[in-house]
Amino acid sequence: MRIALLPGDGIGPEITEASLRVLEKLGDFETDEQLIGGAAIDATGEPLPQATLDASKQADAVLLGAVGGPKWDTTKPDAPRPEQGLLGLRKELGLFANLRPVRPVPALYDASPLRRDRIEGTNLIVIRELTGGIYFGERGRNGDTAYDTCIYSVAEIERIARVAFKTARAKVTSVDKANVLESSRLWREVVMRVHSEEFPWVQLEHLLVDNAAMQLVNAPRHFDTILTENMFGDILSDEAAMLTGSLGMLPSASLGANAPGLFEPAHGSAPDIAGTGMANPLAMLASVAMMLRHGFSLETEAAALESAIDRALEGGLRTPDLGGDATTEDAVRTVLSNL
To answer: Which of the following is catalytic: 148, 210, 272, 325?
Structure first.
C-alpha cells in the first residue's frame, strides 16, 4: 500500500509526522515523501515539481499536510504560489470530487460557536466540484481591469452530481446562484436531469448560495448532502467546519474516476503556530481514516481510528483551538492509547 506523502508548509510537517505514527499501528504502508507548495518553490522554483507529480500518480493514495504562508504571498500575477501546487495536483490527477464530512462530536458541542441545541444531531457532508469553475477559468488583467471566468460543462456537472446522489442518505441540497449566473442555471438544469433520470428516489432541493450560508448556521440539521461548485464549496465547507468548534477538526478526501485519492485536512498551514508543537493533528488523523476507507478499503481500521479520536475527545483532550492546552504530542499519544 503505497502513499505519496506531501507534508507541505507551516504545520504540515508536524501533523504529517503525527499521521505516520498512527499509520504504523494500522498496517504496512510504504511512503514516498515529496515537496509541494512553498517548500517546493523554495527548493525548485515551482509549487508542483515533476517528481512530486510522478510519485503521486504511482501511489495508491496521496496524503497531504498543508500548503501556503505569508512568505510566498504576492500580488504579482506571474509569481508562483503554493496553492498552485495543490490545484495543479488535483487537476493532473483528475480529482473532481471533494468530500468534507461535518459531524460535530458530542464531546465538543460546547466548543462550537453555535448553541448546543442548534448543532446537536448534525451529520452532513459537503461535496464540492474541484476541477472546474472560476478557479480554473480564463483569467487576466487588461489595463486597470481584472477578470476571472467561471466555466462549467454538462459532463463536469453530471459526474459530480452522480457522486452526490450516490453518497446521500436521503436528500441532496444543490447549491447555486441560478438567479444571477448563467453557469448556475446550467448547473441546476443538469442536476435536475440527472436526478430525474438516474436517482428519482433521492430527495432533491435547490438553495441559492447566500441562503445556504445562512441555513448552515440557522439549521444545520436540515442538511444531509450538500452539492455545489468549486468556489461556493470552498467557502461553505469552511463555514460548516465551524459547527464542529474548529477548522482543525475537519478532514477531506478528493477523489477521481481511476486516480489515487488525495486526503488532507481542510485547515490551512497555520504559520503562526508552526514549530510550537501546539497544532491540532485531529483533522489530519481523520483524513487518514478517510484514506483508509476510500483509498484502501480498510473499513475496520478507518472506524477504529475515528473511534479513537472520538474517545480521546470524550476523555477531555483539548488542543488550544478547542479551548485547551494539549500539545500535538499530547493529542497523538491520547489517540494512540485509544486505538
So the answer is: 210
| Residue of 224, 261, 234 whose CA lies nearest to 134 | 234
Both 336 and 213 in one domain: the answer is no
Dump pLDDT digits (tens) for 193-203.
Answer: 999 999 999 99
Cell of 46: 515551482
Query: Is 147 in the active site?
Result: no
75 lies in the same domain as 147: no
Give catalytic status of residue 177 as yes or no: yes
Helix 154-167 × helix 182-198 angle, to 10°: 50
Least Cα distance to 14 among 286, 251, 274, 249 occurs for: 274
Residue 16 has pLDDT above 80, yes or no: yes
Is the pLDDT at 87 greater than 90? The verdict is no
Single out the catalytic residue among 9, 109, 176, 177. 177
The answer to whether residue 104 is domain-embedded is no
Task: Cell numbers for 59, please give them.
Answer: 501511489
Active-site residue, selected from the candidate residues 224, 234, 321, 330: 234
Domain boundary among 222, 244, 266: 244
Per residue in 263-303, pLDDT (tens digit) is 999 888 999 999 999 999 999 999 999 999 999 999 999 99
Is 54 labeled as catalytic in the residue annotation? Answer: no
Whether the CB-CB separation of 149 and 134 falls below 8 Å is answered with: yes
Q: In this structure, is residue 140 part of a structural domain?
A: yes
pTM value surpassing 0.90 = no
Question: Does residue 254 sit in the same domain as residue 167?
Answer: no
C-alpha cell at 193: 436531469
Q: Are residues 206 and 311 in the same domain?
A: no
Is the pLDDT at 244 greater than 80, yes or no?
no
The answer on 175 and 198 residing in a single domain is yes
User: Which is catalytic among the residues 135, 176, 321, 330?
Assistant: 135
109 is known as an active-site residue: no
Q: How many domains does the chain have?
A: 2
Tell me the residue range of the domain where 188 lies. 113-244
Q: Which three cell numbers stand for residue 326?
A: 494539549
Query: Is 9 a known active-site residue?
Result: no
Active-site residue identified among 32, 57, 91, 238: 238
